[in-house]
Amino acid sequence: MLTAVEGLIAELRSTGVPVSVSSAVDAARSLEHVDVLDRAAVQVALRAVLVKTTDHLPTFDTVFDLFFGLRAPEAQDGEKSSGAGLPGGGGGGGGLDDLDDLALREVLLRAMRNDDATMVRAIAGVFVERHANLVPGQPVAGTFNLFRTLRAIDPDALTTRLVLEAQAGASDDPLRTRLVLEQAEARVEGLRLAAEAEIRRRLVADRGAEAVARTLRTPLPEDVDFLTASREQVDALREVLRPLSRALAARLAERRRHKRRGHLDFRRTVRTAMSTGGVPVTPVFRTPHPAKPRLVVLADISGSVATFAGFTLQLVHALRSEFSSVRSFAFVDGVDEVTALIEESDNIADAGRRINAAGAGVWLDGRSDYGNALATFADRWAQELTRRTTVLILGDARGNYHDPQEKSLAAIRRRAGALHWLNPEQAAAWDSGDSVIGRYAPYCDTVVECRNLRQLRAFVELLG
């Protein structure tokens, strides 16, 4: 058991989930208070100790299944299988093996309609046996095996039939229709998870938990690269961004309050010194009232870096209470102010649609031209910058071999108090191809690699 816990903790750390030494000790101690033969109780105990944020729960559950799921699934207490009354049924895969796929799908549909989790797991195991094409020793994560299994099951067809049967003869109530659809989707998702768990169990039995964990290892939402994120990963990033914005705002406000001491309060210092014979042992300072900085953001919204720009703009505007003003500009080959469009939007997707509909940032052909964008900004808005203004540029500095016009960036830097550049590309790719980040760097206070939310959060904390 302790070996499995050690492997679990090591894999969590490898995927980026923070597990301290004290948490590891607490995890081992927590097993003294639960029945170690009760897998569910062990999972709850370890989850409570090792997981500090809900964003890491899916990763924990997957890794837990690898190290504590070597046995085939069995019926849980309180679950009643209806397999005895089905053709070839018996709660396991034995009699079900005699059915062809069409008949097996009918049995599966009946089990899902009756919410029979035991039979669903058994049928999922039969489909995995027939269609997953698991090859012993093959170094794969099981994704293609799951795809083959689900293609044979046809989850979309199952969802449709469940909905149609539930709505047969019922009133055309939109709320009921929505509830029926959500229930059907939840049951089909349970089937998918059962098939995935069965594939994972067989892979672990064949290759060991550590080997499977390495092939299944996926980045946490905060470690997903903006430039390569899939649609599902982008949705996960949006969920992470909201609480991150609140936490960062609170942290920046706290740091600003304690960032520096005010000027010496001479009168209160002398009054305090009367208790020590006139010796000013304890100097007293005035309460500081630091001025909030102004922030100007220039974001490249061309297709290659649009996701990165969208998340950064949304985060910055969520933190606008920590700045005296926040102004945002979007550019591709031209530049336009989009402050109002972002403030009127409810989320990243809505802001992106508004910006695209307005045609912001496009001048001629819509191909990135950093030189013209910076020159236009310098001509139209640079005079509005002050020494209290921090300029933040978001982009990969790939200008399609146009003139970078570094002098325009130099003019912006002379007017502003600070200028930072966030580049979503790996530093190893800088200054390759049409990237001219090296020609802009001398005029920036910092040039930072910012490929994911973790790096973006670290930069915002330094900015405050």
Task: Describe the protein's architecture and organization.
The chain has 464 residues and is of the alpha/beta class. The protein has 4 domains: 2-68; 83-218, no CATH class; 231-259 and 291-463, von Willebrand factor, type A domain (Rossmann fold, 3-Layer(aba) Sandwich), CATH 3.40.50.410; 264-289, no CATH class. Helix content is 52%, strand content 7%. It contains 19 helices and 6 strands. The chain has helices spanning 2-15, 21-30, 39-50, 57-68, 101-113, 117-131, 143-153, 155-167, 174-207, 209-216, 231-257, 266-273, 306-318, 339-343, 348-358, 370-381, 406-415, 437-440, 453-463, and strands at 294-300, 325-331, 335-337, 389-394, 418-423, 446-449. Mean pLDDT is 81; it is low at 70-94.
Strand order of the largest sheet: 3-2-1-4-5-6
Q: Count all strands and give the number.
A: 6
Helical percent range? 40-55%
Largest sheet, in brief, is: 6 strands, mixed
Q: Which consecutive residue ranges, at least 5 long each, have pLDDT under 50?
A: 70-94
Q: H/E order of the elements? A: HHHHHHHHHHHHEHEEHHHEHEHEH
Short description:
By secondary structure, this protein is of the alpha/beta class. The chain is built from 19 helices and six strands.
Defining key terms:
464 residues, alpha/beta, Rossmann fold, 4 domains, 6-stranded mixed sheet, globular
How do the helices and strands line up, and which of them pair or pack?
Elements (H helix, E strand, L loop, with lengths): L1 H14 L5 H10 L8 H12 L6 H12 L32 H13 L3 H15 L11 H11 L1 H13 L6 H34 L1 H8 L14 H27 L8 H8 L20 E7 L5 H13 L6 E7 L3 E3 L1 H5 L4 H11 L11 H12 L7 E6 L11 H10 L2 E6 L13 H4 L5 E4 L3 H11 L1
